[in-house]
Amino acid sequence: MEYLTKYNLTTEDIKDITNFIDEGDKLELELNEERVSSIIDYFLSIGLTNIKDIIITKPNLFYDDVNSIKMRIEKYFNTNIIELLKEDPINFDLIGM
Amino acid sequence: MTLAEIIKSKVDDLYKTYNNLNLEYNNEKIESLKEDINILTTMIETLSKDIKNLKDISYQDISKYISINEEDLKNIQLVLKAKYEANLSVDLTTTQLEVIKKILEELVEKKDTLTETIKKEEERVNKNKEESSSIEDNILNLEYLYEKVNNPDDYSLLNLEDFETLSIIFEDKDTSSKVKIDLLSSIIDYNENIEKQNKKILSTTDIEEVKECFKSFDFKEDMLRYIDRNKEEISRNIDLSNAREILTYLESKKILDKFSIGALLAIVLYSNVSTISKRYEDLKERKALFTVLFEMPSIWVNNLPKKARARHKSPSKNKDGSSNNNRLRVYASKISYEEMLSNEQYLTSIGLNVSISNKTNIKVLETPREKIDENLNTYKLYGFFETRDMSTLPPSTLSFTLKTADRCDKLIEIGLLHNSNNNYTITFPTIVNTMREENFALLYKLKRENSLDNYYNLIFSQYRKDKQLLNSCLTTKRPQKFGYNLGTPEEIDAFKQEFFIDQMDDKYIPNASEYEEIITKENPIKYSEDILTDEKIKTLEEQYRVDNNPYQYKIGEEIISRLKVLRCYSALKEYGITDDNAFLYSVTRGMYLDEKTFNLIKTSVKGRGEYGWSI
Lengths: 97, 615
Hints:
The complex is a heterodimer.
Chain A: H1 11-20, H2 23-31, H3 33-45, H4 51-57, H5 66-74, H6 81-87
Chain B: H1 3-20, H2 27-49, H3 59-63, H4 70-84, H5 94-150, H6 160-170, H7 177-197, H8 207-215, H9 221-229, H10 231-237, H11 240-252, H12 261-270, H13 273-285, H14 306-311, H15 327-332, H16 337-349, H17 362-365, H18 369-381, H19 404-413, H20 424-427, H21 431-434, H22 437-449, H23 452-459, H24 472-475, E1 480-481, E2 484-485, H25 489-499, H26 512-522, H27 535-544, E3 552-555, E4 558-561, H28 562-574, H29 580-588, H30 595-606
Antiparallel strand pairs in B: 1-2, 3-4
Helix pairs in contact in B: 1-5, 2-5, 5-6, 8-9, 8-11, 22-23, 28-29
């Protein structure tokens, strides 16, 4: 998961992530750099910079296609969902993700 | 007989034995016996109180249970009536007194016999349950081995675990010596065949040759980097001719570049052209060749069926907490395509937004159905759908791998689920999975030390009143939380040791680890309705059940998850364990308790009702 360092995650952050998520999540993140990166890039593009917390709270998102994620989030663009997600990624629960 | 035939034959035998085991109580018989015991108890008590009461008991009532001379009884009753109803000056003879004494003794004896009969019936059922559980394990292990030896894609030699399974046959005294000799011989044949079929099992491939192979198909640096990262597993498992065959086939179908790197490596290692071409043709014919399927290696590998897969152990962690030795194998054998389709159909039918074709909520689609059902049933039991529709549940909550029910108990006890003014967990069910264990400990402590209002003011973010958000120190890793050092595992351990008792220490609850072992094994997510008629539970219900809240008992200010107590005690009772320690363990299980609170709970539960405690 070293590639996560390019998103300003430290080695300590990556250690925290691997200690918290399950084995299946680890494999998904380790073996799918391209897809995971495309999802992180999207999050950054909409102002979500708390990448470590998102991975820890919602590792399931990184199994999906970035377009599917975009579609589900953009439906709520007229609400304050981005602001809420910035504060705490558990707010993905509010939009069923 | 081949190895497979011997295993199959043993499985068939075990199924026969299993199906013949009677695991049901003869309820009609037991009810009738209990009724008789009640009648006998009343009769014995009546007679013991005063022998004059014999005058009111009929011959038919007594003779139903013991043999008695009708004439003798009539004469005794005549005397008793004369003396106590007509006030005549008559007395029972010594012989008649002896007869009464004998009646009483025989009634007691009869009652004991009937009680013993019930006990034996219960023992019979318990014994059969134990036997059936052991047979189930044996069947499952043998079925797994049967799948392995029948799987043309499995080139692994029989290992220690397989030999342990085969010991079921070797140790069976009803299996003939001839079959056992055949078995030994078939094991040797099997392993020799596997070795002949695939020399790669015993050798490794030079990783540079692997890289050259991929380079010849125009793969660039990114693929070579992945090969390097997984070189140990690849060099141990790759068959270069099989790999070339697969890559050539995928190239010929113009789908080689569609695969993600991780998926392609897993497929090249653990599949073959035959399996891949079958899957490709099938998907193409059904117009289901979605792009996303090229990122899921397990779809292209001939995966074992569910039962066998369940036996695969999750990869063990090495010292660094990672496991690099077989991660591509684990990735490749995650789930079969058919199971994913079945999950998709099921989850869609309950209104959840999942889709293989759109690659939406894939994690839950890759989750074994048993786990999905376990989570869903837990949420149902814990009232998640009382205030929200099932279709609004984030599908990922059905893929949680932790023990969801145990986590819900803790959330109830720290006031975040079904507490009077707070149902945070229903709005944010992901907390079931993400609440860190040290935060649970901290919240048990904070809740204990503060009034409820102060507690909620402390733990919820103060600047966002429109949405209830937990204080950020509870949702992220921080070195300090509410003044306590909780940044490293050592600090967390020290915190737990300083403020909480160790419930597994026998000095608090003797046999706690035995109870825990059973509950962990059974992982109960329901309870028997009968448990509500148990005297200890009845006392708890009467004294501590919170009005209009089916989720809480409350002792002092301490909330105790009612469902936890019912689930755990019910599971222990199924094992015939009903002692006071088991009950106390069911009440306190999983809580972070200081000595004072533990003693409060112990003594509160203790002196209630007629059921004294031995603790």
